[in-house]
Amino acid sequence: MPARKTPHLHIERLVEPLLRENVVRHVLPNGLTVLVRPDDSADVVSVQVWVKTGSIHEAPLLGSGLSHFLEHMLFKGTRRRRGREISAEVQAHGGYINAYTTYDRTVYYIDLPSEHVKVAMDVLADAVFNSTLPADEVDRERDVILREIDMGLDDPDYRVAQSLMAVAFRQHPYRHPIIGYREVFSRLKRADLVAYHKARYIPNNVVLIVAGAVDPERLMPAIEKTFGAFERRAFDPARVPEEPKQMAPRELDLEGDVQMFRAALGFQVPGLSHPDTPALDVVSLILGHGESSVLWQALREKRKLVHTIDVSNWNPGGRGLFYLSLLADPEKGEKAVAAVHEEIERICRRGFTRQQLDKALRQAMVGEINVRRTMSGQASRLGLAEVVVGDVHYPATYLRRLAALTTADLKRVAQTYLQPAVLTSVAMRPKRAGSRGGASAITAAARLFEQEALPNGARLLWRENHRLPKVHIRIVWRGGPLFEEPGRRGATSMLASLMTRDTRSRSAAEVASAIESAGGSFSQFSGNNSFGIYAEVLPDDLDLAIDLLEEAMLHPAFTAESVALEREGQIADIVDDEDDIVIYARRRLRRLFFGEHPFAIPASGTVEDVKAIRAADLRRLHRQLVRAGNTVCAVSGDFPKRLLPKLKRLLTKLPAGRPEPRDGSQAYPAEVGRHVLPLERQQVIVHEAYPMSGLLHDEFYVSEVADELFSGMSSHLFERVREEKGLAYFVRSGRVIGLEDGMFYLEAGTNSAGAREVVKEFTAELDRVRRGRVTDEELDRCRTRLKAARRMGLQSNGSWCSHAALNALYGLPVNDAEFYDGRIDAVTREDLARFARERLAAKNRVRL
User: Does 795 or 261 have the greater pLDDT score?
Assistant: First the structure.
């Protein structure tokens, strides 16, 4: 058939509402650009300040990480606020404040309930333009960032990616790490920060974006008052050198203290606004997006050479990379890279099919819809168009270019850019064999679920939401370590994965192709207490979603080939985790803490256990868990009424019954005391773990507040360990949560010199809480943050379904916003003191 010459009409129809999005653009007299996107679908707002400066603009200090350093320093104090007051004020209004630095921009943002939008604007304007960059904070924050640099050096994926950039770009500043080189960064002075801030943090180099439940006309006077008060200044744009055309292949081999083979391959491509970008994006989707993609099928499913392979078209501005990454067993690495070359050469020669094009276009359009699910996503999309492309309406241009693509366009760009003569490749191999030893409540009726218990014990929850043309269906079951046989830990995780693969009527490739051709998603999850499957599709594809869910739930095949492949993949993930020092330490901490309790092993299992799992084990576990009395199905989105009877018919096909968990009464902590695990790493990770009650106990809400108390940028622990003493890059608390019991822990990333001091700070902070020294301000911050996080976490159909379905499964209220808020508000400092005395006591402590 000839290549299509007219736009894809179904794509045009899907994105028509997106092309008409209301965006108000206004430039203040001082040159500051304002974008406001009103959306009242959720009572939250994202306020973002995009400063048009990043690591590529740091000349003559390229490679210093100056932009990133300044980003850290801007929250250390202003002419109006002390450093700790900034995050405290935001959190007191239920907000989340953060920032990030890229190659070409630095972004500061606050997400919070919409009634506090003016607070967010005032805080951000003050921090961005009035920061005092206090001298006593510079050295302290330098030490913190040095810890962050160490984290990167310990992360093999980061090292491979950064090495690819350094080899692919010879002149362009993309070759330098955003965070900077350790030795160059260490020499930065406060004067460098002050000069850079004065030169580039000026209104005429800044864009303010507000997306959410706001009225642009009523908000604009406040914007003009808050951001219009700063003076326009002379601006000298940084000169960014052009990257010369690559004339020959480039290659770099690395060795590391890792257990898996990693490779990254890149082809230079033009920037975001180039007419070829949509076609390159589509080619990347066809080659490496999802389990039905060309490279996934060829290298993982058929030839079994890789555990994962991904492709993306990265093009931030003027130049970019068409980027492929893979993870493989060491003995298969070279063959995997060679196979990538073979597949690219083949597809450049043969071209693409209409079916591949249509599937990728649908995926791309679904991506455009998905990015708009949250206010933060909408704001970021506008910022990208305005700051990087220079045209706030570029998303519409991009969508129209997508809709007009033909298979001939795809073949042309593949042949133009994916040439071996201009390939850059980086590979990292193990340096030796073997493994290591040693807020207001959400009350609107339209946002709540209705529910029905079916005669067989299954439960159906539903919630209509017509904001976007998407539907999410999620089915969940109790499962995890408490339902697994000893020696078969990780079986639930493998079961969940295989349920979305081969069935009696479809192969794994056919399942992946069907859902990805519809631009949808079909996946699974598993954890300590539950597992499930879910599908998210456009309303036209609901019948497909139900078919896939039914086959996965009732007729999974568990073929020997798929079980073997999934076993290898799960083992590879576990082994890969061994290369991340933080995850590695948490795994060892669980073993020390839980002992013989099922939670001693994470949901993914151990290498030894996963190796032992066979198809018969999975069939037996499936029969045990996938029963009506153990099933909750939740649906949310833009669905027709006819969907509910179909879901009910599906649920009635389940066998009756409800499984009982294994005995989880084993005593813990198992190995109280101090433990040391030596590793060859730049960092030292410090953990302290204590017992806690689980999700079904009243004490759980105390642990919620305690977890918030010890975490966050305005927590007393963070202020002491990171801000005042500069001992650690990260310090926080965390939990392993079961229904009946669990583990509460503190953790920090420091160095050998700081480890002992971090332990002292842990002890001092716990003692402060035990003595009831938590202030009213701290307690209010915790309550507000938790309640606001609940509201902000429920912006997508998927998050609504997950929350409601698991609540129903665990016997908690399905629509629990008011219930949750009340329980959090009821937690007192006396409750926290009692929790710290009884639970977080030295006699219960496991320190690693």
Answer: 261
